[in-house]
Model the fold of this input.
Amino acid sequence: MAVMQNMHIIHGRPSWSSAFIIAALNASGLFSPLRFVLSGSADDKNLTCAAWAIDKASGDQLDGPEVTWKMAVDEGWVDKKGSKWKTMPELMVRYRAAAFFGRLYAPHILMRSEEHTSELQSH
Done:
């Protein structure tokens, strides 16, 4: 059931929901809980967000890529049919920042989750 609730098909490829990515990163034990630096506003079209966490092995702060309102517009996320970017931009920018952080610093966690999903689907 968790797989069905958190796996989405986007352009023909399975992709984890951002909520699942945040939960997987936080449960991994590799990082402190994911945190966000949010600035600006969608109304002023200068909203930005970056996710960060502390690497528990080194103690280093790991900063994820910054997600901007301009990026959301340029990538077509804002105007996509059914998009929540116009109605809840602060949440959406955090979700996208978390996904970028996970794909950059912990792709092995997300890939492992995809492998477990394939195993579950084959049984």
Summary: Strands lie at 7-10, 13-16, 35-39, 48-54, 61-63, 67-68. The CA atoms of residues 29 and 56 lie 8 Å apart. The longest strand covers residues 48-54.
